[in-house]
């Protein structure tokens, strides 16, 4: 039985140009005899966990994952034992309000020093725009400016940033475009950092779930927003809440308002996050599809522009990993070797996934009534 399992794994890896214990940069070096059985039993969860446990290594993780996904090998491994995990996603609302702050605690709050040593100088934790950029700092600034230009920001406008992270967009838009920005996030560490970084600017940062926005505006008799933006947050909303999210954005925008949604996108509609990522990186999350986004916004918005630059995320993730690797001696003061392997697997497997075009990166511009005389797409 063991030999049959090993032969099966060998054969499907060979079909993607990956050899067990080979000399190539994408070839897996197996250190534990139970690796094959674990992958068959637990699928992608077992594959990632066995790497964290030191059961296998590879010279270039990103290239391995690229080959595996480009050949669709993930679809050939039995997911039978994860049946109840996927079934549960149909009945459990993993994005409900009571779970909203879990991803903040388990991911974004694990240490600002980690992200400071990994990200660009503005602390932007989303895909950079590399069209004319030569390095990570330039790519992230180009992304922020691209968003501002797509939203046609004008001095004095009031802008909402849903999922503001460490405040990179809030600060940039306030400094460069002279707008008032309100940023919300579910991470306390991000709030503390952004408040300090945006001090002296026309910026407010709040620890808040998006579902409380309408109630707050109504009670405080606040004016509606001219513009809305959400960068890398929609992945935490989950499909059962997409319509609620879109309704919220619709209700807080002025009639002539624009909303830009920057999100990772899936090629097919699914209802459960990949198990390894859900357990170790982004709990209660889900990558949306075109169908899910369009369905949740139907009747609320006019889709003015849809821009895919998913290939840029490969380069962004490789830049993050280069920073992480270079600064590990400083980072490891607060983390152990298992965390190092987990984070390496996360960053490089994500890069390989975008390289294989298994996932995308979309910037979508919505209007409430349609832009008079048409929206001019900006690249």
The CATH homologous superfamily of the largest domain corresponds to: Vaccinia Virus protein VP39
**Helical residue percent band:** 40-55%
Nearest-integer average pLDDT:
93
Helix and strand succession? HEHEHHHHHEHEHEHEHEHHEHHHE
CATH class of the largest domain: Alpha Beta
Trace the largest sheet across and list its strands.
Answer: 5-4-3-6-7-9-8
- Which residue ranges are poorly predicted, with pLDDT under 50 across at least 5 consecutive positions? none
Shape: globular
- Main pleated sheet: 7 strands, mixed
Between the first and last Cα atoms, what is the distance in angstroms? 55 Å
Overall structural class, as computed from helix and strand content, comes to alpha/beta
Q: Name the CATH architecture of the largest domain.
A: 3-Layer(aba) Sandwich
Task: Give a quick precis of the structure.
The protein is α/β, with parallel strands linked by helices.
Question: What report would you give on this structure?
Answer:
Helices cover 44% and strands 15% of the residues. The protein has 16 helices and 9 strands. The chain is an alpha/beta fold and 379 residues long. The chain folds into 2 domains: 2-78, no CATH class; 97-367, Vaccinia Virus protein VP39 (Rossmann fold). The mean pLDDT is 93. It has a 7-stranded mixed β-sheet with strand order 5-4-3-6-7-9-8, with helices on both faces. The chain has a two-stranded antiparallel ribbon with strand order 1-2. Helix 3 (61-70) crosses helix 16 (337-355) and helix 14 packs antiparallel against helix 16 (337-355).
């Amino acid at each position: 039985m063991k030999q049959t399992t090993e032969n099966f794994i060998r054969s499907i890896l060979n079909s993607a140009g990956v050899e067990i214990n080979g000399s190539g940069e994408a070839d897996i070096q197996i250190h534990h005899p139970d690796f094959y059985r674990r992958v068959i039993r637990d699928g992608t969860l077992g594959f990632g966990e066995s790497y964290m446990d030191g059961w296998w290594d590879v010279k270039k993780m990103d290239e391995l994952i690229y080959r595996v996904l480009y050949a669709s090998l993930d679809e050939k491994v039995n997911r039978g034992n994860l049946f109840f995990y996927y079934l549960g996603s149909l009945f459990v609302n993993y994005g409900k309000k009571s779970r909203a702050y879990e991803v903040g605690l388990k991911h974004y709050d694990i240490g600002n020093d980690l992200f400071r040593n990994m990200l660009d100088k503005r602390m932007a934790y989303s895909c950079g725009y590399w069209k004319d950029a030569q390095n990570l700092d330039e790519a992230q600034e180009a992304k922020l400016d691209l968003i501002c230009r797509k939203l046609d920001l004008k001095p004095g406008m009031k802008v909402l940033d849903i999922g503001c992270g460490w405040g990179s967009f809030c600060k940039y838009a306030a400094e460069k475009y002279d707008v008032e920005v309100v940023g919300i996030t579910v991470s306390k560490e991000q709030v503390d950092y952004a408040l300090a970084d945006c001090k002296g600017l026309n910026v407010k940062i709040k620890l808040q779930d998006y579902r409380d926005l309408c109630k707050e505006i109504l009670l405080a008799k606040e004016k509606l927003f001219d513009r809305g933006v959400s960068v890398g947050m929609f992945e935490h909303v989950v499909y059962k809440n997409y319509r609620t999210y879109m309704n919220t954005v619709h209700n807080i925008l002025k009639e002539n308002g624009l909303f830009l949604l920057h999100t990772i996108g899936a090629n097919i509609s699914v209802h459960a996050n990949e198990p390894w990522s859900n357990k170790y990186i982004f709990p209660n999350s889900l990558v949306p599809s075109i169908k899910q986004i369009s369905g949740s916004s139907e009747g609320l918005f006019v889709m003015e522009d849809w821009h895919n630059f998913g290939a840029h995320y490969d380069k962004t993730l490789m830049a993050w990993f280069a920073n992480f690797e270079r600064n590990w001696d400083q980072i490891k003061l607060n983390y152990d070797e298992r965390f190092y392997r987990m984070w390496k697997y996360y960053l490089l497997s994500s890069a390989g996934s975008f390289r294989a075009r298994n996932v995308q990166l979309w910037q979508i511009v919505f209007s409430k009534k349609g832009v008079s005389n048409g929206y001019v797409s900006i690249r």
